[in-house]
Specification:
Blueprint (H helix, E strand, L loop, with lengths): L1 H4 L8 H11 L3 E2 L9 E2 L1 H20 L3 E2 L5 E3 H4 L3 H7 L5 E5 L2 E9 L4 H11 L8 E10 L13 E11 L3 H20 L6 E4 L11 E8 L5 E11 L1 H6 L2 E3 L5 E3 L1 E7 L1 H12 L16 E5 L5 H13 L4 E3 L6 H11 L3 E5 L1 H6 L1 E6 L5 E5 L3 H26 L1 E3 L3 H10 L2 E6 L3 H10 L4 E6 L19 E6 L3
Parallel strand pairs: 3-7, 15-16, 15-17, 20-21
Antiparallel strand pairs: 1-2, 4-6, 5-6, 7-8, 8-14, 9-10, 9-22, 10-11, 11-14, 12-13, 17-18, 18-19, 21-23, 22-23
The protein binds zinc ion.
């Protein structure tokens, strides 16, 4: 089948397969004439908008309100937080001219928005009564990445950033937990993608943060994809941007802050990569731009196709009839490639028997059902599809976490792909050495969703084991 559709198989060359799916399913077009910038096509945007809406709904439920900040950040804001500027400066795009005049102050295209938003927070937040203060924006950000790959690394990519301020330090951890719950709920229960939360090592935290927590998804080639992160900013930024409030006793205090970035682009990459197969995309029912495609086997079936379509639309199911002048087999392949979860075939036999033939994209299973049971069956299958996708991905993740007790074991696991789970001394120099020797095996951190205690010596240097960490190559 994959040969017929001209796709490289996922096993043979994952990277090539991924690029081909992105292009052949009309998700993106790389032919735009600015290198590293991608055109998003309708099939991708419809999925992406659904992801945005899932996150926006949860964020608003938890007290976040939407804002939209300018894409430009004046240089003087941008350079205020030393660690932050050091990290981001090498990849910032600057606007230096307007028309034929040089700007008095150059403007950064936001690589992230702390330095844009927090000067306004300092104007808006006055009293403890203004707190907690929670805002988010759904935007794209710009970074001059050296190498780019659709949905994984781009010079412009899509995300959400939520920036929260609190009166007390203890609210920070509560917020980080809330962010992790939102991530888990959407990514696992709606997208069907199992995640692991890590507290990143100090040397790998967000620039300017006190600590960083992040969610990783294991990709089919054994490399991990960080799909979101949530940072404890302490009052590092509030001191720099003067975000203060008067507490109930009238004393001036610095606000405590967190920021949370669900990477919509990164999730799209995981959705394509983890669920897809050699025929193309496989989409969960909820995310699919078209959930049910109806294929008339003969022209004489069109009338019945229309009536089934109406019934599905009445039940808020996104449905189309494929009336193109092509063979049913060609249409089957085309919709399978695009990942449409359910196909309904209607021909003379179905008309005669008042039945419908359903086919599932995720496992290829076919059902012959009575017409009157259509909605009931779809509701049931919808859940089964998500469960099946999630189960498969969970098994893959479990099968690719290996305990390693020695350097050799770590090297072998990282070479093969997946996570090496090790006792670790907690030293940056040991992590750096491991990364060099394994050619990219990075310490992802300690589990944030589970308490794990070291049971032996550091698998890499033999020093005292202080914690359990996971090591993997990353995107
Ligand atoms: Zn060590």
């Amino acid at each position: 089948m994959s040969e017929q559709m001209g796709i490289t198989t996922k096993k043979e060359n994952f990277s090539e397969w991924f690029s081909e799916v992105c292009f052949k399913c009309n998700l993106i077009d790389l032919r735009y004439n600015v290198q590293g910038f991608v055109v998003h096509r309708p099939w991708a945007m419809k999925i992406i908008k659904k992801m945005y809406s899932l996150f926006e709904k949860e964020l608003e439920k938890t007290g976040h309100e939407p804002v939209l900040f300018p894409v430009v950040i004046p240089e003087k804001n941008f350079i205020k937080e030393a660690e932050h500027v050091e990290e981001f400066a090498p990849e910032v795009f600057w606007i230096t001219e307007a028309g034929d005049k040089k700007l008095e102050e150059k403007l950064a295209l936001r690589p992230t928005s702390e330095t844009a938003m927090y000067q306004m927070y300092s104007l808006w937040i006055r009293s403890y009564k203004d707190l907690p203060f929670k805002r988010y924006q759904s935007v794209s950000v710009f970074r001059n990445e050296k190498t780019t790959k659709p949905f994984l690394r781009g010079r412009e990519f899509l995300w959400i950033e939520a920036h929260d301020a609190f009166a007390t330090e203890k609210e920070i951890m509560k917020q980080i937990n809330e962010d992790m719950i939102i991530t888990k709920k959407i990514v696992e229960d709606h997208l069907g993608l199992p995640i692991m939360f890590f507290k990143r090592p100090q040397w790998d935290k967000f620039a300017g943060a006190v600590e960083t927590y992040a969610a990783d998804i294991l990709m089919p080639d054994g490399k991990v994809n960080q799909i979101s992160s949530t940072h404890n900013l302490g009052n590092n930024f509030s001191k720099v941007f003067d975000i203060t409030f008067l507490d109930s006793k009238g004393e001036k205090k610095y606000a405590w802050q967190t920021c949370y970035g669900p990477g919509i682009w990164r999730m799209m990459a995981a959705l394509i990569a983890v669920h897809g197969d050699d025929k193309g995309l496989i989409l969960p029912f909820e995310l699919a731009p078209i959930q049910v495609i109806i294929i008339p086997i003969k022209d004489s079936a069109l009338k019945k196709c229309e009536s089934i379509k109406k019934e599905l639309e009445k039940n808020c199911i996104r449905v189309e009839i494929d009336k193109r002048d092509e063979t049913p087999g060609w249409k089957f392949n085309d919709w399978e490639m695009k990942g449409v979860p359910i196909r309904i075939e209607i021909g003379p036999q179905e008309i005669k028997e008042k039945t419908l033939t359903l086919a599932r994209r995720d496992n290829g299973k076919k059902y012959k059902i009575k017409e009157k049971n259509l909605i009931k069956t779809l509701k049931k299958i919808e859940k089964e599809i998500l469960d099946n996708l999630k189960n498969k991905a969970t098994i893959f993740l479990k099968n690719n976490i290996h305990n390693a007790k020695s350097r050799k074991e770590v090297i072998d696991i990282i070479k093969k792909g997946g996570y090496a789970r090790i006792n670790f001394c907690g030293r940056e120099v040991c992590a750096k050495d491991m990364q060099n020797v394994t050619q990219g095996g990075k310490v992802r951190g300690t589990r944030a969703d589970k308490k794990e205690l070291a049971t032996g010596k550091c698998a890499w240097c033999g020093g005292l084991g202080k914690e359990v960490v996971y090591v993997a190559k990353q995107y």
